[in-house]
Design brief:
Helix content of chain B: 40-55%
Radius of gyration of chain B: 22 Å
Distance between the termini of chain B: 42 Å
CATH architecture of the domain at 90-169 and 223-333 in chain A: 3-Layer(aba) Sandwich
Number of helices of chain B: 16
CATH class of the domain at 90-169 and 223-333 in chain A: Alpha Beta
Oligomer: heterodimer
CATH topology of the domain at 90-169 and 223-333 in chain A: Aldehyde Dehydrogenase, Chain A, domain 1
Largest sheet of chain A: 7 strands, mixed
Largest interface: A-B, 55 and 39 residues
CATH superfamily of the domain at 90-169 and 223-333 in chain A: Aldehyde Dehydrogenase, Chain A, domain 1
Largest sheet of chain B: 6 strands, mixed
Strand order of the largest sheet of chain A: 17-18-19-16-15-20-21
Strand content of chain A: 15-25%
Radius of gyration of chain A: 26 Å
Chain lengths: 534, 470
């Protein structure tokens, strides 16, 4: 059955009367939500805080999201309700290791890549559903349309087998061998084996074992049982997480963020359509539950429930998981941000080009990504920084026209608070006006508190005497630094990296990726598998 | 309006008279009061534009001049309360009080020309400012980032006088005072000018009361400024802590000590506040008993957390105090950094009632903040009534003013008594505001519910960002 047919049969991913039914995948079983009317949904939120997004009713989970008019990018006052099944955490856990060992763990890399190809083909056959999901997503997404549309258009591309193979080979490659060798099974290595102290001492025993030639060293990248708790507001995040689980031939659970349930649902439908009996499909769950739901998390975070828990969250959230999931390796993607270093060379007739590159780095995921540039340190006088800021403001104005932003009312209030209060001494260059805000650039010689940054096309320009003065602001909370020009980047690269920054890239290239590259200081696939010594 | 010459302006005088009538439930015309209030607001606006750089900057950016109307002010010129902590924290860390003076000059209606040489602490700086005619009251957030609200001598006198003129009749209406005082207040309000009323009130005092303040014996926080004004009115006063509160120490407590000397200073504060707690409580309880034995009524003032602690000690000792009829307890200030200790209001009042032998209607609650010039008392019907001296503005998330007689949103206000600092402000509180007649007899806007405005959580791909200087 195609993805389209699966949806039509059970009324999935259609919007009717402001209701959308969203399925889960629970260990290969496509689970549809119960039938809930609009009246039931509204009643579930009766008396709740106006900002309340989540409710439950009769075996269903409900997400209520405010609708945004895409013409003027403002709330309409209406709501869209997503209806999802309830979650039984016990259904998500797997403890039959022999079944796993003979099932997904026994797959070859070629079989995984074929699985991905089948999933991508399922998407290719079902543009109607993808388009419908894209349209529904748009109704409530705070991402500008261009970004959301691009994310959905790239869904199938994210499952490209060639790229996937490169990820496996590069991230799991050790001993000069491609990673697929280790994922496919045990690999004997030409290792120089040290027998250890006890065998050597045993040579002094009468009747003790003779020191024999050791069995060849062999290692394997063993799949694991994984729980991915995604957060944030990028539709790609649950897809990337699912891809990593698949590429490591692992069993596990992907928890969607509330703002991006539809991409995971599409993946669930693709797996159920393309390969319903595949060992990977039968060992993957794509679900949602409200973060902090003790009834669910008490079970999922218990020791032994999973081998790996991937958490996207602040250190205290990560610590809370670690404290509960004893002996489980927790992999954390902490909240981080990006910034830019602009050398004096930008003022030698290259300003227009430089600000265009800088604006590009600002606009990574509409300034909501960990790598988006929030702060830009400009080497020069305050007057020069103001010239730079004016040029950047103009460049961002062009982005505003290309891709009008949604600036939520709370962010509009936040911007007023910043402009009239703590940063009233800064020079403010804002596009849009009262009730129709867009991008903003501010120039300030004073430190800026990142906690106050709205991540809504606001760039803070800080003039500094020399680029090295910005090093004091670098730490592990900074994920990305974009530098201009290239000579300065190469000169500062090690100093920047030594301070905990993960990526030091040319200005304008801070969104670039390559298969097999590190994220947040990790080769993620290598963290997800368990390296075995046999 | 020149900065250093105090008198009630004619329109202030009229508005204060109207407020006194309002407080006593005498004939009161809200429309007249509103017109008077708005005259002052527009005068203040013109004055701020001319004399307060921070205000002028905001107005200039939006192209707003001296002829703006009140609605324009509400939409475009309300400043956030963090304007009073818009300095660079490093200036305090480095004791650079020259820069602090320069910053203060931006939010005061005259340049701060007080010398900054030789100043090595916040307390020393504030003392020198006060000697130079600038009284600064501060409040400390949980992060240790202080808000400093400056008033020059004239503004301080106006604030004190107006508070006396308004609070005395409000309390004398049914909460406080001897029978003859309650009889005398109506003609006093009718016949005396506010200036004369203030002199008369100061002369009378509340000599049949002893006072207990659950606070440090001196300091410059908003509560301490209020206590210092009130203390001379009473026959005797007793403070929970017999030492003054150093602002530097308070900042240390929130931000952490950086060296051995600071650790030692902090240890002394903690000893006074924590280790000596029971001893301090015993001394306060003794003062309460002594007042009762002397047939004196008692006025107790403190934060909810301090009252809860004191009641717990009284309970542990098993010997409730029995205050004289007519005594009053007043709490306010919220739970702040003691949010984890918070108990429901009814429970707190019940504990206080039992511990002090006070009927619940003798336990008052106030709502105020360092940045506002008035104190809003909660009536017996649960409303914190806003006096006509203040025009409240309730804002939605986007800081647009909301209309209506029952609205929820962020609490902003236009303060007619703020003549030396910008008094058109947005607080960090989210409230429910109602407007109309109250069963207590007062009318007009009143706050029914108070909470902190929800902090907006910025969620990047990894969750919520932390506070980091960049």
């Amino acid at each position: 059955m195609t993805l389209d047919e699966l949806c039509r049969n059970d009324g999935l991913l259609f919007e009717a009367d402001g209701i959308v039914r969203v399925p889960f995948l629970v260990k290969g079983r496509l689970v549809s939500p119960p039938a809930i009317t609009r009246r039931d949904a509204e009643a579930a939120f009766a008396g709740a805080d106006p900002d309340s997004m989540y409710a439950t009713v009769r075996g269903a989970q409900l997400l209520r999201q405010p609708v945004i008019d895409r013409a003027d990018m403002r709330y309409t006052g209406e709501y869209l309700y997503q209806i999802m099944p309830a979650v039984d955490p016990f259904e998500l856990i797997e403890t039959d290791f022999d079944r796993l060992a003979s099932g997904p763990y026994a797959l070859t890399v070629d079989e995984i890549l074929a699985f991905l190809k089948a999933m991508a083909a399922a998407f290719g056959e079902s543009w109607a559903t993808l388009d419908r999901a894209r349209t529904i997503y748009r109704r409530t997404s705070s991402l500008p349309d261009l970004y959301g549309d691009a994310a959905f258009a790239a869904l199938a591309g994210g499952l490209d087998p060639t790229t996937a193979a490169e990820m496996i080979d590069n991230e799991l490659g050790v001993w000069g061998l491609p990673g697929r060798r280790f994922l496919d099974g045990w690999v004997e290595l030409p290792a120089n084996i040290i027998p250890g102290l006890a065998p050597l001492l045993a040579q002094g025993l009468t009747g003790g074992p003779r020191l024999a030639a050791p069995v060849a060293a062999a290692i394997r990248a063993m799949p694991t049982r994984q729980l991915h708790i995604t957060a944030g507001n990028a539709p790609q995040v649950p897809i990337v997480s699912a891809l990593r689980l698949i590429l490591t031939k692992s069993a596990g659970v992907i928890k969607s963020p509330a703002e991006a349930t539809l991409p995971a649902a599409l993946l669930a439908l693709a797996a159920a359509s393309a390969a319903p009996d595949h060992p990977l499909t039968r060992n993957v769950s794509l679900v949602y539950w409200k973060g902090g739901d003790e009834a669910v998390e008490r079970v999922l975070f218990a020791p032994g429930a999973f081998d790996r828990i991937v958490v996207w969250g602040a250190p205290d959230a990560v610590s809370a998981v670690q404290a509960r999931a004893a002996f489980t390796r927790v992999i954390a993607f902490n909240p981080r941000y990006g910034l830019s270093l602009i050398g004096q060379e930008a003022f030698a007739g290259r300003l227009a080009e430089v600000v265009a590159l800088a604006a590009q780095d600002v606009m990574i995921n509409d300034q909501k990504a960990c790598t988006s540039s929030l702060i830009q340190y400009v080497e020069g006088t305050t007057a020069q920084a103001e010239v730079y800021a004016a040029a950047l403001a103009e460049a961002l104005g062009r982005w505003d026209r290309l891709s009008p932003p949604f600036i939520p009312p709370a962010t509009q209030g936040q911007l007023k608070r910043l402009r009239r209060g703590r940063y009233s001494r800064a020079r403010w260059l804002a596009h849009g006006g009262e009730g129709d805000p867009a991008s903003t650039v501010i120039v300030t010689p004073e430190e800026f508190d990142i906690l106050a940054h709205p991540m809504s096309r606001l760039v803070v320009i800080r003039p500094i005497a020399q680029l090295g003065d910005a090093l004091r602001y670098l730490h592990a909370g900074v994920s990305m630094v974009g530098v201009y020009p290239e000579t300065r980047r190469l000169a500062l690269r090690d100093a920047i990296a030594a301070r905990g920054v993960s990526s030091v890239l040319p200005l304008g290239q801070c969104e670039r990726l390559f298969a097999g590259g590190p994220q947040d200081g990790m080769m993620v696939l290598s963290e997800l598998v368990d390296w075995k010594n046999g | 309006m020149t900065p250093d010459h105090f008198e009630f302006t004619p329109v202030h005088r009229q508005l204060i008279k109207a407020t006194q009538a309002w407080a006593l439930r005498l004939p009161f015309d809200p429309a007249v009061a509103r017109d008077l209030r708005r005259q002052i607001i527009l005068q203040n606006h013109a004055h701020y534009l001319e004399a307060i750089p921070a205000y002028r900057r905001v107005a200039d950016e939006d192209g707003i001049g001296p002829d703006a109307d009140v609605e324009t002010i509400k939409r475009h010129l309300l400043l956030p309360d963090d304007i009073f902590k818009s300095y660079d924290q490093r200036w305090l860390d480095e004791a650079d009080f020259g820069k602090m003076n320069a910053w203060l000059s931006e939010i005061l209606h005259r340049p701060v020309d007080v010398a900054s040489d030789g100043l090595d602490s916040i307390d020393a700086w504030l003392a020198r400012l006060e000697a130079g005619g600038i009284k600064v009251v501060y409040s400390s957030g949980t992060s240790g980032n202080f808000s400093f609200v400056p008033r020059d001598a004239a503004a301080w006198r106006l604030f004190r006088a107006a508070s006396t003129c308004y609070l005395a009749p409000l309390l004398l209406y049914e909460k406080i005072g001897s029978p003859w005082q309650r009889l005398a207040i109506r003609p006093a309000v009718r016949w005396l000018s506010p200036e004369t009323f203030v002199r008369a009130s100061g002369g009378m005092g509340l000599r049949d009361f002893d006072a207990v303040f659950l606070d440090f014996s001196s300091g410059r926080t908003g509560n301490q400024a209020l206590e210092q004004e009130l203390a001379p009115l009473f026959r005797r006063t007793c403070f929970l802590y017999q030492t003054g509160l150093s602002s530097s120490l308070l900042r240390l407590a929130a931000r952490g000590p950086r060296n051995e000397m600071e650790r030692a200073l902090l240890a002394r504060l903690q000893t006074e506040a924590l280790s000596n707690k029971i001893e301090n409580h015993r001394r306060v309880i003794e003062a309460l008993r002594r007042a009762a034995a002397d047939r004196q009524k008692t006025f107790i003032f403190g934060t909810p957390y301090q009252f809860k602690e004191l009641c717990a000690t009284i309970n542990d000792l098993g010997q409730p105090v029995s205050l004289r009829p007519g005594s009053l307890a007043l709490f306010g200030g919220g739970w702040k950094s003691f949010t984890g200790e918070r108990i429901p209001r009814d429970e707190l009042v019940a504990q206080m009632s039992q511990s002090f032998g006070l009927a619940p209607e003798r336990i008052l609650e106030g709502y105020s903040m360092t940045e506002i010039s008035t104190f809003m008392l909660r009536c017996d019907h649960g409303r914190f009534h806003i006096p006509p001296l203040i025009e409240p503005v309730i804002l939605d998330e986007a800081w647009q003013p909301l209309a209506g007689s029952d609205v929820r949103g962020v609490f902003g206000f236009l303060d007619t008594l703020a003549i030396s600092h910008p008094g058109f402000l947005v607080s960090g509180d989210e409230v429910r505001l109602v407007d109309g007649d109250c069963p207590c007899g007062l009318t007009g806007p009143a706050v029914l519910e108070i909470g902190r405005a929800r902090a907006r959580e910025v969620k990047g791909c990894g969750g919520i960002m932390a506070s980091v200087a960049a």
